[in-house]
Write a structure and sequence with these properties.
It comes from Janthinobacterium aestuarii. By secondary structure, the chain is α+β, with helices and mostly antiparallel strands. It has 10 helices and 5 strands, in the order H-E-H-E-E-E-H-H-E-H-H-H-H-H-H. About 55% of the residues lie in helices and about 10% in strands. Strands 3-4-2-1-5 form a 5-stranded mixed β-sheet.
């Protein structure tokens, strides 16, 4: 039986990797599952490397001592750009969360202090507020998807729509409350932390669609109503979306 590696085991592998291949790194932060205690036997190591300067940010995947490592290389300028200009507009800041949740495993200096302060400031500021048009788009998309789900009699099609609804409802519930969102397992974790009741309802509804379609349809109607109510409810009639003028070209 394969055992789950301890954090100390992983930290030692990461530290040897940094010393051997990236000795100029001014910070090396272990994030992901090992930083939050959710590791499994096959979890990879998420490692953010900070340098005084890089010509361009980079990402690399390698294997160190039999363990897959996901590397993210940045300096302060590229880290700031990626977090604020690339990630934050979409409501997700995984790089900043790596710094907030993770541990720097090399000697901490001024560079790490600046990185840590910036990441915490980004987390605390929260995502951009959803404007009226964005909310309308989301309400409309959820309402039409819910109609597709409720009308469906095909188990495979219904499950595909239910997965779409799960993500849309989870993301809207977080963003409408000014909370950062996430992708995949991180979406579930953020939702569960913010609102365990809604997380449980969505999880239960999705499972029901796979096992008892009529019950799953009713469950999604209930949770969708709860999520949409604070932002204006369902939206169909009256929704309009003009195309940009430059599309004529």
């Amino acid at each position: 039986m394969t055992t789950i590696p301890t954090y100390d085991d992983i930290r030692a592998i990461a530290l040897r990797l940094v010393h051997e291949r990236y000795p100029s790194a001014v910070a090396a932060i272990i994030g992901g599952s090992f930083a939050t205690g959710r590791q499994t036997t096959t979890s990879d190591i998420d490692l953010l490397l900070l340098f005084d300067h890089v010509d361009c940010a980079w990402r690399d995947t390698l294997v160190a001592e039999g363990r897959t490592v996901e590397l993210f290389g940045h300096d302060m300028a590229t880290f700031t750009y990626f977090c604020k200009e690339m990630d934050a507009p979409g409501g997700k800041v995984p790089l900043a969360m790596m710094v907030v949740e993770g541990e720097n495993i090399v000697a901490a200096g001024d560079a790490y202090a600046r990185l840590h302060a910036l990441a915490h400031a980004i987390e605390t500021a929260g995502p951009p507020v959803l404007d009226v048009e964005n909310l309308q788009r989301r309400r409309y998309a959820i309402t039409t998807a819910l109609e597709d789900l409720v009308d469906s009699t095909h188990p495979g099609e219904a499950l595909a729509v239910a997965c779409q609804l799960y993500e849309a409802l989870s993301d809207l519930h977080l963003r409408a409350a000014g909370e950062w969102s996430g992708g995949g397992k991180h979406l579930f974790r953020r939702l569960q932390t913010f609102d365990a009741a809604i997380a449980a309802q969505l999880d239960g509804a999705l499972r029901l669609v796979a096992s008892d379609l009529p019950a799953g349809q009713r469950a999604f109607e209930q949770v969708a109503a709860a999520v949409l109510a604070p932002v204006g409810g369902p939206l169909l009639e009256g929704f309009t979306l003009p195309a940009p003028a430059h599309w004529r070209a």
